[in-house]
Design brief:
heterotrimer, A alpha/beta, B mainly alpha, C mainly alpha, B: mainly alpha, 0% strand, C: mainly alpha, 3-methyladenine DNA Glycosylase II, Chain A, domain 3, Alpha-Beta Plaits, two-stranded antiparallel sheet, 7 helices, 4 strands, elongated, flavoprotein (chain B), phosphoprotein (chain B), transport (chain B), transmembrane helix (chain B)
Chain lengths: 498, 357, 179
């Protein structure tokens, strides 16, 4: 297949060897599971269980809390201990509403929805509902509810389902292992998703540094004429939805549009496997594959982890830490988020847990920019990081927005190459957050103002009505008085009339 | 916020740093420099050492005065590079005070007044060279013919001391550079084609047996250093190719039109500071545009101005002036030649969808 | 000579006349900027800025160089908007520290007197006579008028908490770098 060039990008040290040959190992059940109500983009899920209630494996714990939301299920049987605030896997260290489940070790299954024997003879809407009810979200880390992305076929003409197996982040090998060990499941899931979307064709994009995954997937796909496996160049960030689409189709997704507008929907390989489980076996999303790696981890591994397991349980299973890590990262080292500690749960979007040593992070105090222009050359979004960072440094967020800071995807390439170690992406993350917050503020103020105006109108009207009523009453009284006087006068007249 | 989460990603970094870049540039300059030091003997060695040392000293002094940490910035070799390039743009037998005054122009005036490393608008070494050239035209144009170390007639160590710390080269030793000779002859009414016969041939120009500034000689070694920088991805091809290409095309074109008035393209490329300028001076990160397209425009500008100054102006060599003039345009070039953002048109509007106008 | 003086006089008189007519015709009673500034303020007349109401603050901003940072309910965003319109630099450090607030009613202390509801300009408090009142946090903009009028001190002002949805990275503090 002919591939198309993608602008910019970098070739970081991949460091995947530590886990690329580590087969996926199921993690033993931990003593407690912490299931946040918000493990996805959109509204938080709403709990349907109470503290003290016994639940079975696969039972619904919380249903979707809105049109963009996803339900959560019990990864094993046990008792709901509480629904309470627990530290979130997030750099802020803030807490969020979380269902705490104490497993009883019996792994007793709840009654699951019936398997769909022939999905290709089933209406897409039924399959889509199954995906939605199974709590499946984008397992590549974006955690957007998958069912919504699968409904794009009803609004737009989709001709390609692009399965993202690029896995361009260093260290991470979970998608690689899933493709190597469960290729048939992934391909089946992808074909079901293509059926839901009405897409005639499935293309699997895998970075060329994963030959075993390419071979396994090609083998699993060869009996299906419409599934093609394509090795893509090793170039970070190839796993970005828009860039992968460009590499495979040559089409550039316009700003503020979706790849679906070009007829392409991108899903992660792990998501495809989850769809396979949901449709063929009625099994909701209960676990995911997580790469545990980094120089501070004793025995790096790929683990199949029940959702809600504490990161500390994963690390302990991997032999613990050999030294205090400089950073604990949720995800890959390029785009992953730093974690404040190990006592946070694995959620649907956790593709990796990295405990990185100071040597691996290679953090140095930032020096002055020497305008080398490398950040401009490698920016996959065609932005000028050096200029944006200078604006942001001087608090000119408007100017930064004008030169495109909101188009930045925070891929981290510019910070990675900067010889002066300037935290460019940190500047952009700050600016994006601050601009969004200011927008939110402005909207809130507009709504407040509308409320105040409505209030004032009402008060004025009430006042006017009161005045009118008072005037009317006064007029009435005056009229009555006049009438009374008139009548008395008349009577007086009468009386006066001899 | 804990020390674990005080910074957003990425949590890995390319194995590069500012000192590493600067040291690579110095390494690329080393072969040509060593050869030139050999060619021009002890006075050139003294000049080189004085130039680098005074720039380093000036840098340390400025940092100290500004209350900035001295050690980290001094370690990154950027001041050494300025001093090195300054030495290469001086006549090799110039007296000691020329590089010292140059260092004062280069470091405090051209660099630290603007805010230090990364903030300067103009290339410090070229500011120094131009300031010296207009202030001390005699010392700055007194070139000598190469007299390699240990060859007969080359000044010994002590003799060299008296040259560097005395009056410098004297008129009797002087020899004109090729560009200077052609210009002088042209002003006397002698056509270029005629005067070209009396300057070193192209081979000599390329390998360095000719009078001139230290960096003007040994074109081949400079070129090799430049290619080394290209291979190591310290610089990209855009500026050097644009500078040399423009000079060659303009030179060839006008030489064909009027051989008596204009020197040929190859002569432009191999003489003067073309190679040094194209690979080491115009490519200075701080003072050149950041985008590739901007760098092409910048390079063409430098080539064009160099050719124009060499052909029409009073000075035989125009590289330094051309670089400084284009430096002043860098901010504008940067603004005008931004790369196109992903999914957007050049004007910043979202790309139209197919079938959408 | 006479021609020069004459023509100049004619030009002067004509232009002067035009200006005079324009001044009469295009006369604006109210300062437009004052009106514009008033539009930028919340309009809750809470008086936390130290002026009687939003109109008076807008007047002070337009004519008396009042600081742009006085509006508490408007917060940082309003201060920035005002500063931008007036072309001044706002010292936002105070707003950074304080952050937006909203009112909370202590249900044990509320006697259901309705006074706060009467004060609230954004209809953010609901309740009826002799029944505990409550604040709709989303509608409250922190003007603190209810806080001041509550006879039982049942109302206190709380900081709007930072959530996972509203948190964002701080500006990196790397002053050593100049770029």
């Amino acid at each position: 297949m002919k591939l198309f060039p993608v602008r910019g990008g970098i070739h970081p040290e991949y460091r995947k060897d530590a886990t690329s040959e580590a087969a996926i190992t199921p993690l033993p059940l931990p003593t407690a599971l912490y299931l946040p109500l918000q493990q996805h983009i959109g509204a938080p899920a709403e709990p349907v269980v109470e503290a003290g209630q016994r639940v079975l494996k696969g039972q619904l714990l919380a249903h979707a809390g809105g049109s963009v939301s996803a339900p959560t299920h019990a990864p094993t049987s046990g008792v709901v201990e509480a629904i309470t605030e627990v530290a979130a896997p997030h750099p802020s260290g803030l807490t969020q509403k979380t269902i705490v489940l104490l497993p009883d070790g019996r792994e007793e299954w709840a009654e699951l929805p019936a398997p769909i024997a022939d999905p290709f003879a089933t209406a897409p809407e039924i399959l889509r509902r199954r995906v939605a009810e199974s709590g499946i979200v984008g397992l590549g880390g974006a955690t957007f509810p998958s069912a919504i992305k699968l409904s794009l076929g009803t609004q737009k003409k989709i001709d390609t389902l692009l399965l993202n197996g690029a896995e361009c982040e260093p260290y991470l090998t979970c998608d690689d292992r899933v493709m190597r060990e469960h290729a048939a499941e992934v391909v089946d899931g992808a074909r079901i998703m293509a059926h839901i979307l009405g897409a005639p064709k499935v293309v699997v994009g895998i970075e060329a540094n994963k030959p075993a995954a390419i071979a396994a997937m090609t083998d699993a796909a060869k009996q299906f004429g419409n599934v093609e496996v394509v090795p893509v160049p090793v170039q970070y960030p190839m796993g970005s939805e828009r860039h992968l689409t460009q590499a495979i189709t040559g089409l550039e997704t316009p700003a503020r549009k979706l790849t679906a507008d070009l007829g392409v929907v991108v899903h992660n390989v792990g998501t495809a496997r989850a769809v396979h489980h949901a449709v063929r076996f009625g099994r909701p999303l209960l676990s995911r594959v997580v790469t545990v790696s980094g120089g501070a981890v004793a025995k790096p591994a790929n683990l199949e982890v029940p959702l809600g397991t504490l990161v500390s349980d994963l690390v302990a299973f991997c032999g613990g830490l050999t030294q205090p890590p400089r950073r604990i990262v949720n995800g890959g080292p390029m785009m992953g988020q730093p974690l404040p500690g190990l006592e946070v749960p694995v959620v649907k979007g956790t593709c990796g847990i990295l405990a990185l040593t100071a040597g691996e992070c290679d953090e140095q105090p930032p020096g002055p920019c020497i305008r080398c222009g490398t950040c401009v050359t490698i920016c996959p979004c065609g932005l000028v990081p050096v200029e944006m960072a200078a604006y942001i440094r001087h608090d000119k967020l408007d100017a930064a927005a004008k030169v495109g800071v909101m188009d930045c995807v925070s891929c981290g390439s510019c910070s990675y190459v900067c010889p002066s170690h300037i935290p460019l992406v940190h500047y952009f993350n700050y600016a994006k957050g601050a601009i969004t917050a200011a927008d939110r503020d402005r909207r809130k103020q507009d709504s407040t103002k509308a409320l105040i105006e409505a209030h004032n109108d009402r008060v004025e009207k009430a006042l006017a009505a009161k005045k009118a009523a008072a005037a009317a009453a006064a007029a009435k009284r005056a009229a009555e008085a006049a009438a009374a006087q008139a009548s008395s006068e008349t009577s007086a007249d009468k009386q006066g009339n001899p | 916020m804990s020390a674990l989460t005080d910074k957003s990603g990425p949590f890995t970094h390319a194995p590069n740093s500012v000192p590493r870049i600067m040291n690579t540039v110095l390494l690329a300059l080393a072969p040509a420099t060593l050869f030139e030091l050999y060619l021009f003997g002890w006075p050139a060695v003294f000049l080189f050492v004085i130039s680098v040392a005074s720039c380093k000293l000036a840098e340390a002094g400025c940092l100290w005065l500004a209350g900035k940490p001295v050690a980290p910035t001094l370690r990154d070799s950027s001041a050494a590079l300025t001093g090195w390039l300054l030495a290469m743009s001086l006549p090799p037998w110039a007296p000691w005070w020329v590089p010292v005054v140059g260092a004062v122009f280069a470091i405090p005036l051209a660099k630290h007044v603007f805010g230090g490393l990364g903030q300067n608008v103009f290339n410090p070494a070229m500011v120094a060279r131009v300031a010296l050239l207009v202030s001390f035209p005699v010392q700055m144009t007194l070139f000598v013919a190469p007299q390699p170390l240990f060859s007969a007639g080359a000044p010994g160590f002590l003799e060299a001391l008296s040259i560097t710390f005395g009056a410098g080269a004297v008129d009797s030793m002087s020899a004109a550079s090729a560009l200077g000779y052609v210009k002088t002859e042209l002003s006397r009414g002698i056509p270029v084609a005629e005067s070209l016969r009396h300057v070193p041939d192209l081979m000599d120009l390329a390998f360095g047996s000719k009078p001139g500034s230290m960096g003007e000689t040994s074109v081949v070694l400079i070129l090799l250093g430049g290619l080394f920088l290209l291979v190591r991805r310290i610089i990209s091809w855009h500026i050097p190719v644009a500078v040399i290409g423009t000079l060659f095309v303009l030179g060839t074109l006008f030489n064909t039109l009027d051989p008596a008035r204009y020197t040929p393209g190859m002569f432009h490329v191999l003489s003067g500071a073309t190679m040094l300028g194209a690979f080491f001076i115009a490519t200075d990160y701080v003072t050149s545009p950041v985008s590739k397209k901007g760098q092409l425009v910048f390079g063409v500008g430098v080539g064009l101005l160099t050719w124009a100054i060499r052909s029409y102006a009073g000075y035989p060599e125009g590289m330094a002036f051309a670089v400084l003039l284009m430096n002043s345009l860098t901010p504008i070039i940067d603004q005008q030649f931004r790369p196109r953002a992903f999914g957007r048109t050049r004007k910043g509007e979202p790309l139209p969808l197919k079938g959408e106008k | 000579m006479l021609l020069d003086v004459g023509s100049l006089t004619v030009i002067g008189v004509t232009l002067g006349g035009l200006l005079g007519v324009a001044a009469k015709l295009l006369h604006v009673e109210e300062d437009p900027i004052e009106h514009e500034l008033l539009g930028m303020l919340p309009g809750s007349q809470c008086g936390q800025c130290g002026y009687v109401g939003c109109g008076q603050y807008a007047h002070a901003l337009a004519h008396e160089h009042a600081p742009v940072t006085l509006c508490a309910p408007g917060g940082k965003t309003t201060a920035e908007t005002l500063a931008k319109r007036l072309g001044v630099k706002a010292d936002l450090s105070e707003h950074e520290d304080k952050g937006p607030e909203y009112a909370v009613i202590d249900e044990d202390l509320c006697i259901g007197c309705l006074r706060c509801i009467g004060e609230c300009t954004s209809d953010a408090i609901v309740g009826s006579v002799k029944h505990v009142h409550t604040v709709i946090a989303d509608q409250c903009h922190g003007c603190a008028k209810c806080f001041k009028i509550c006879p039982t001190e049942a109302i206190h002002m709380c900081k709007v908490p930072v959530t996972l949805g509203t948190w964002h990275w701080d500006k990196p503090h790397t002053d050593a770098a100049t770029h």
